[in-house]
Sequence to fold (351 residues):
Amino acid sequence: MTDRPTLPSIDDITGHQRLRRTRRYEWSRALVRENQISVSDLIWPIFVIEGHDVTEPVSAMPGVERMSIDRAVEAARMAESLGVPAVAIFPNTPPNLRSEEGEESCNPDNLVCRATRAIREAGIEIGIMLDVALDPYTTHGHDGVLRPGGPVGAQTVVRGDQIVGNDATVEILIKQSLVQAEAGADILGPSDMMDGRIGAIRRALDAEGRQDVMIMSYAAKYASAFYGPFREAVGADAHLKGDKRGYQMDPANGNEALREIAKDIEEGADMVMVKPGMPYLDIIARASDTFNTPMFAYQVSGEYSMIHAAAANGWIDGESAMWESLTAFKRAGCDGILTYFASTVAQRLAG
Ligand code: PBG
Fold:
């Protein structure tokens, strides 16, 4: 019989430090909890359509509807009463108003401008964010206007020899921004990824006496497969020619995201965003360690749809996945999150 070696006690191994101790009760878990989602962290993206007293479901986004402006006003009123700080309004522009150059984006009476004024006129105290980009307004579904891209070679073109022209697009985005500011938007969210647009828009706003309008830059926006359901919601899916890799970021890059964010802050962004959210938590964490500018994530349509689809199949608990995914953004360093779950979360938090 060989002697069994004396095993050390677990207390010797742990050095008497047992991390499970504080996990024992709900009260002790609450006491040591580092991050918590609260209603003041939320921006609620909503979709507007023409018509009166109508809603349309977005098939790939259960629980999300496109709303006529009167319904959007009611949604904003509900959000206000729940304490949601802001809504982000996106249009599903009627096909006959979409064009090659997306002129409807600069129409002071377009859907988002009318929705903004209607919410303001109803006296609803909620922040209104509008997207600065051309994709809901162009017949080709791109965020900017198409221009010859020079000798084609191996470059990623959109159509023929055309690419999304940077400087020509920025000129239109400036007009769009001024029109949106005039309509009463509090936050402009340039989501186009053109170079130099944050500085150009800031200067134009200031020159027009719009120093009070905030800019939340979609600073690190990736060419992502997770935008699919959104494109259905705004009706850009049927239109989109080619892809957006010639201007949105390569998902393989992290350092470049920090350069994009640094640039937008330097050009005058008040807040910066990383988009999509969950696949890019590393970017959010690095950015929030690096910069002091308020940091946001966009939990995009595909992230929302995945959670819903898996839950509908009984594969995950959707409610828990919703809370877990949003808490992860806070842990990574976000000050706030754009999420289609905002109204649900706000209702739950209100009890
Ligand atoms: C448009 C824009 C997109 C989203 C927000 N603004 C789509 C895109 O870039 O193709 C995506 C939002 C989502 O998927 O929820 N510039």
Q: What stands out?
A: The longest strand covers residues 42-49. Residues 104 and 110 are 6 Å apart (CA to CA). The radius of gyration is 23 Å.
